[in-house]
Amino acid sequence: MLESSPLVRAMRGDRPPVTPVWFMRQAGRSLPEYNQARGNTTMLEACLTPELAAEITLQPVRRLGVDAAVFFSDIVVPLKLAGVGVEIAPGIGPVMDQPYRTPADIDHLCRAELTDDALTPITEAVRLTVNDLGATPLLGFAGAPFTLAAYLVEGKPSKDHLAARTLMHADPDSWRRLLNWAADIAARFLTAQVQAGASAVQLFDSWVGSLSLADYAAYVAPASTRALTAVAALGVPVVHFGTNTEHLLAAMRDVLTAAGVTSPIIGVDYRTPLDAAASIVPGVPLQGNIDPAMLAAGWPALSAHVRDVLTRGRQAPAHVANLGHGVPPSTDPDVLKRVVDLIHETPND
Amino acid sequence: MLESSPLVRAMRGDRPPVTPVWFMRQAGRSLPEYNQARGNTTMLEACLTPELAAEITLQPVRRLGVDAAVFFSDIVVPLKLAGVGVEIAPGIGPVMDQPYRTPADIDHLCRAELTDDALTPITEAVRLTVNDLGATPLLGFAGAPFTLAAYLVEGKPSKDHLAARTLMHADPDSWRRLLNWAADIAARFLTAQVQAGASAVQLFDSWVGSLSLADYAAYVAPASTRALTAVAALGVPVVHFGTNTEHLLAAMRDVLTAAGVTSPIIGVDYRTPLDAAASIVPGVPLQGNIDPAMLAAGWPALSAHVRDVLTRGRQAPAHVANLGHGVPPSTDPDVLKRVVDLIHETPND
To answer: DSSP assignment, residue B272?
Structure first.
């Protein structure tokens, strides 16, 4: 049933009659029912309360008619479940109890394990969600090793990830230990979601665009490959996505290939037109890449842009429509619904 | 005298015996004498006190032996001098008295003029600086129209410049009016610095990498061209720089060409190796692009990286060594000095 869903068909390289669409951050602050459901719970409490996480995951499917649910969670949730001191500060983002930069701090961190027991709130939430979703597939996700390490080394969100990028050159051994640990955490988080019922997964390397290709290849790609090798055996499609990654798209595709992922998909940031991306990673299904800034630009500009994205997406073997980055919190849900309808009304041939 | 300086020679496409080097943000928080000179003055007060701005501009030349001074100022200074309500909040950056997004607010803003009288603190500071610099050239600078508009529309620093990028599509007329106004402000600021003695200028389009090439070409390039057309007539070399701009380098070169700049230089972010940049914009002198993250990575890694940058820089007709972004505040000045010495000791052939 789920294998024949438009999402999974497109992710496996097919062109279903309707272009499937979902939105990064579709479950969250742009929906009034989300704010109501959250009430006074913190972000991490909400992620770790199975009934609530399931409800929030289902909300955009009900309201928007998207072709996939994306599991409501956060890339730092597996760190929290492994015992790392992390909170999500409203208006700021993930804040660690300390930056992890010294060999001793990294050694200590890497002794933390993500156990099956600790993952129970996740697997339970996924099961509840999948039960209610019926024919709509659930997409699981995790943060990629570099993006997790960037938060751990910086201790908080950062613009240019200077401390993380320094560490990889200043102490490559500690860096590799940290990235391998983060890779194993990401792999366990993804595996738990798939085993509980997710039909596909996305590995977010949100901040990897701050790296040169040479640094990516030497200091990051091996750990991303390690994370995805564990997931490849599960057979589900895997999307790999980052922002500012035009110069890294081919290397990210190589990570999927090296990991043995049978149905790789490259997620494309709004900056790179899909036809250009299709030339960079030929033969790979693409996901993306409506510019989130267009969501508030009025329907004439937005609808023309969506049609342009769909047209360019035809240069790829298959296309999963999405934004080129997450839904901005201020987005009008009615506009998202209208975008979904436009995509579904546009013939996919 | 200044035309034969290594900086101006390289900027004009020549290869002087020594590769000239300066650092973006070399005048500022990384130097103890800067913090001492600033005392309790605010950033904008310091920029608008000629003796202090001149002293801060000279400090890195004395300490580091760089081949250029870069005028100590801020890209929002000309906005302030035109009467726009802006402050630089410590730890945050430029904060406007309001966001400028509606047609009425933009109309009102665009009535503000940057007069010669208002520019007196700038021209006086430049004259004082040039008097003391002797054979070392002074580089003036301004923020490019998009980067100025990004601050004005957002009202504060922003990660993805969503409101600015929405406005260009939602209300292209207001956007063009805003960008043309910002272009004229930037042009007047640059012109004042050159007329007071700056030997070259840099137009910083720091945040332009958040745009796709199509948006850049349609909504930004004409205004950048307008700003530089006014400057081209002065005959000084012009560097154009932004971060995350690999996909825009050729279009930024086209702006310099369209403006009639006789000695154009492209500044390259640390992500794009200089030999790759030289292929994208052949025949143009390049500036950059030591990774600021390497400054704290230890001398073996840093010196190997600097040598690699110099080697790759030989693929361009001429090379002005610099960082690929600004000096991080935590940088050890002794490391900067060692980098300058290494660059000066490396034959430029």
So the answer is: S
